[in-house]
């Protein structure tokens, strides 16, 4: 993903109107604003070091890899409806 590409919500069950509202509300079509608000650039620099298992295979661009992981995490935190297949299931106690 380049700096200018909109952030991807993944497959959701949102209506087109609801997705459009969320995209506006969370700056998903303006990744530079999303990144600035969430401090992605600063956090990327401190997280671009590869883990030992990643060092074995290497990475063409550890900073880009870290940026995408941070964006994905921030997106899932801000918009829990994104990628519903990975959401934690919440159940009420049967007691």
UniProtKB/TrEMBL annotation:
Comp. bias intervals (Basic and acidic residues): 18-45, 64-79
Region (Disordered): 1-95
Protein name: Uncharacterized protein
């Amino acid at each position: 993903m380049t700096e200018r590409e909109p952030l991807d919500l993944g497959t959701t069950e949102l209506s087109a109107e609801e997705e459009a509202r969320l995209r506006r509300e969370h700056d998903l079509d303006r990744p530079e604003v999303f990144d600035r608000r969430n401090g992605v650039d600063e956090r990327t620099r401190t997280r671009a070091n590869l883990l030992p298992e990643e060092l074995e295979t290497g990475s063409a661009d550890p900073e880009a890899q870290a940026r995408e992981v941070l964006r994905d995490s921030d997106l899932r935190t801000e918009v829990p409806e994104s990628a519903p297949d990975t959401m934690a299931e919440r159940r009420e106690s049967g007691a």
